[in-house]
Write a structure and sequence with these properties.
alpha/beta, eight-stranded mixed beta sheet, 11 helices, globular
């Protein structure tokens, strides 16, 4: 891989897992993360520094992010989009921009509006657990998963190949598709199941009796169907709202 300096905006479960894979595959690369939302170092970021996964933290985009060859956007979709004007000002012309968002349509629209279509390749590693944060990140989490790519019509072939190299470092399988195709598929196999899981948990809680028989008797089937309801509700609210059209299309 020809990318030597990699920056992360947002550094939780997915970013941490990708970074661990990259550190294992390319021990000499430099990796840094943005730490502009906290007056002190967030525990997960400090842990990543202590682990040697990250080399540095940057308080804003005006420092070493200018030197990045590759930048990962790893926050909620709307937050990622909000960074695009600032990134447009500081990114080098050959810097590759990617994301790991669970929805792609609005991100691609934001990228094209910002004039960054030629520097962007959308990405979505189809892996995860119900826990959040770098402390739960693991290179093994990504092994065997699909890493989906949604390039724009302006994306460069060499940038798509770079992302495939990164996927290989994460031991992922790859597939390239359009943002629209991605969002329809993700609605069916990811977003709607999360809605159903949250709904089942809430319905049982509302209908259980004073002795909480439903809670007491819940066994493997219920746990299997509701495990993902332990995921961040804020994150999933953002995802479902952003992919509302595809979710409703699938449910209709």
């Amino acid at each position: 891989m020809n990318k030597k300096t990699i920056g992360f905006i947002g550094f939780g479960l997915m970013a941490g897992s990708i970074a661990k894979c990259l550190r294992n595959a390319y021990p000499n690369i430099t990796m840094l993360a943005l730490n502009n939302r906290y007056p002190t170092v967030k525990p997960g970021l400090k842990m990543a520094l202590d682990d040697g996964v990250l080399d540095a933290l940057e308080p804003d985009l005006n420092g070493r992010f200018h030197d990045c060859d590759l930048i990962f956007l790893c926050g909620p979709v709307l937050t990622n989009i909000s960074y695009l004007p600032a990134l447009k000002k500081i990114m080098q012309k050959d810097c590759l921009l990617t994301d790991v968002g669970s929805t792609k349509g609005s991100m691609e629209a934001g990228i094209l509006k910002a004039g960054l279509g030629a520097q962007f390749v959308g990405g979505h590693p189809m892996a995860g657990i119900e826990k959040t944060g770098y402390e739960h990140a693991s290179a093994e989490m990504l092994a065997g998963a699909f890493y989906l790519f949604t390039p724009t019509e302006f994306s460069k072939t060499e940038d798509i190949e770079t992302m495939k190299e990164i996927a290989a470092a994460c031991k992922c399988r790859t597939l390239t598709l359009s943002a629209k195709e991605h969002d329809i598929a993700a609605a069916a196999i990811s977003h709607v199941p999360h809605i159903l899981s949250y709904s089942l948990v809430n319905t049982v809680r509302e209908h259980d009796n004073d002795k909480q028989y439903m809670k007491q008797f819940a066994a493997g089937g219920f746990r299997d169907m509701t495990r993902i309801a332990a995921s961040s509700p804020e994150m999933w609210q953002n995802i479902v709202q952003d992919n509302k059209t595809a979710v409703l299309q699938f449910l209709s």
